[in-house]
Write a structure and sequence with these properties.
mainly beta
């Protein structure tokens, strides 16, 4: 399971944003980021619809269901802002998400056709 690299956005500036290929299961590392500053942008370039399932592993996770976002073939979705209280595993400092079919089974399409961009919002007024 690999970490998705974040793209730090800066105030009042443009930024090149790098997309990575999807994988069946991936993680978002919160250890070096300000909490509540992460948005996962997903482009489903596959012919099959997909579901992004973000697991509730955090301290507040017992009070919430996993986050499921369905994305039709050829469509895009932004997921977040992802609150660490619900999604960050305290043991690993990471959130885990999967790319699945909409019935929560293994993705029937080509998972690398699902492109991911992790956007990190500015931490303060100075960046």
């Amino acid at each position: 399971m690999a970490d998705v690299t974040s793209n730090l956005l800066k105030r009042n500036l443009g930024a090149a944003v790098v997309a990575v290929d999807g994988a069946a299961s991936q993680t978002i590392d919160y250890s070096e980021r300000a909490d509540e500053k992460l948005v996962l942008h997903v482009v489903n370039g596959d012919a099959a619809a997909c579901r992004i399932k973000v697991s509730t592993l955090g301290f507040g996770g017992s009070n919430a269901d996993d986050l499921d976002v369905d994305i039709a073939a050829g469509e895009e979705a932004s997921i977040g802002v992802l609150e660490s209280m619900y999604f960050k595993d305290p043991a690993t400092q990471k959130a885990t998400f999967q790319i699945l079919d909409q019935d929560n089974t293994a993705f029937s399409g080509t998972v690398t056709n699902v492109k991911l961009r992790l956007l990190e919002l500015p931490k303060a007024l100075t960046n």
